[in-house]
Amino acid sequence: MKMIKIPQFSNNMCAVIICLLLFSSQMLFAQHINTDSLLVQAYNSLKQKDYTLALKRAHLGKKVSPEYLDFQVLIGRIHQLRNQPDSTRIYLNRVLDKNPAYEEAFLYLINLELETKNDKEAEKLINKAIEVHSDNKTFQLKKLQLYQLQEDVDGERKHLSELSALYPEDSEIQQRLFWLDSRFNSDRIGLQYSLTNFDRDVVGPWHLGALQYIGERKWGSVIGRVNYAHRRSNGTLLLDGIQFEGESYFYTGENSYANVSVGYSDDLVFPKWRLGASYFQTLPKGWEVDLGMRYTHVAEQDIPAGTLGVGKYFGSYWTHLRSYFQEQNENIYPAFTLTSRYYYNTRFDYVNVILGYGTSPDERVIQADLNQRVQLNSFRAGLGYYRQFGRHFITGVQAVYNRQEYMEDNWQNEFETFVMLQYRL
Questions:
Q1: What phi-psi label fits residue 204: left (phi over 0), alpha (psi between -120 and 50 degrees) or beta?
Q2: How far apart are CA 196 and CA 11, in angstroms?
Q3: What pLDDT is recorded for position 24?
Q4: What predicted TM-score, i.e. pTM, was given to this entire model?
Q5: Which of 65, 72, 141, 196 has the most beta carbons within 10 angstroms of its beta carbon?
Q6: How many Cβ atoms sit within 10 Å of the Cβ of residue 279?
């Protein structure tokens, strides 16, 4: 029998062959792994909060395909969820070094720095993300979050004004901008005048004028007002007098505020006492709700009322519906006022529309007649235009038509014209 000779290999040759076999097996193994499928599996494990399995699959994907950056982003995200900020920064920064435009890596890293209140690094990342992705609204909103973290009201307000021009239909931006606008120190003095005419010869006209001061501060605002009413009938003076009013809005939280008001007069042309209070809560997506009470003491009668309102921003539009439930002689009488405004520049520039049913205690012209009108029907509609001129002057004009029942089944038409001028100090 002939013997078969087996070739002899040196140690170096054996090492080379083993390396080639290992490399070939790894290549064959990699070919059998679908990296996209592996990434999906890893994210599924993450959604199920199985961080250990998710991390194992992500590292496997990184090993198989080192240039597939999604796996490194996922590794960073897992470390972030595990409250391991240092490891998170390492992986996400590696991704941004290789791809400076990677949106998801920016977002996770920015969120990390905001959560850890590392505002300097967060600002650096946000500015870089906005530079690379100028059209990405998410990064613009992260800048707002940074200003809030820094309690930089001036910076947030300025950035909101820029975003308002870029995204005029975003109700939350508009709502936040109006919220901040009212928190800047400013003082205004103003004059108001309304003329009410009637289609009955024996009634009117009624004149109502007011001198007011408005002081706005970061904590809220205070309003002082002196009103003068002059009512005529059959061409002669019927009633006149003065009323003193005080009012304040103050912030009770990051997304809430309250209002209190008081009015007093010793003249019959006004209620003797008028008290009010409301609580306002802003909600996501531009919504706002309010709950309050009113009390009017007029002609020796006490008329309490509860109020409930809901408002909504639709981009540059604001709509608010308030309902009043007034008690007189153990009966409840409802009234409703729908107000809609379109803002075309600042919070002082708008067109408003008013629709209403019933008589509410917030209608200044008829406060002294609330005891007579609360039980009667009333339908009104109004249109107003308000505008700021320059830095100092704010003007407004408004017309309201009211179809009023003055006795049961007897009606009159009322036409109110209102003008206003304020000066910002």
A1: left
A2: 111
A3: 43
A4: 0.72
A5: 72
A6: 14
